[in-house]
Amino acid sequence: MEFGLAKEKFAEGDFSRAGALFRKTVDEHPNADIAPEALYWAGVSKYKASGDPAALGETAAAFQSLYTDSVWAKKASVWRQ
Questions:
Q1: Alpha-carbon span 30 to 14, nearest angstrom
Q2: CA distance 55 to 72
Q3: Nearest residue to 11 (alpha-carbon basis) of 44, 34, 51
Q4: Tens of pLDDT, residue by residue, the chain (81 residues)
Q5: pTM over 0.85
């Protein structure tokens, strides 16, 4: 449920709220199939809310220990510093 609402908030440009909801999805459902995508979008939302590219680097670093074989880890790998 949080993931769907997070996507809606992201589309509306409410990146802070979207990021919190994506993060909640990862924290509360770490083994769900949607968790890697939620982690990716949490990082993008944090970047969009703050304008700080470090948020993307942090997300890439998180993927080095979480969901390493997911397509979302591959997409985030371009943000590694």
A1: 23
A2: 15
A3: 44
A4: 889 999 999 999 999 999 999 999 999 999 999 999 999 999 999 999 999 999 999 999 999 999 999 999 999 999 997
A5: yes
Burial 55-78 (b: 16+ CB within 10 A, else e): bbbbbbebbeeebeebebbeebee
Distances (CA, A) of 42 to 31, 76: 16, 12
Q: Quote the tokens at residue 58.
A: 């942090």
Residue 81 CB contacts under 8 Å (≥ 6 apart), including other chains: 57, 60
CATH numeric code, 2-79: 1.25.40.10
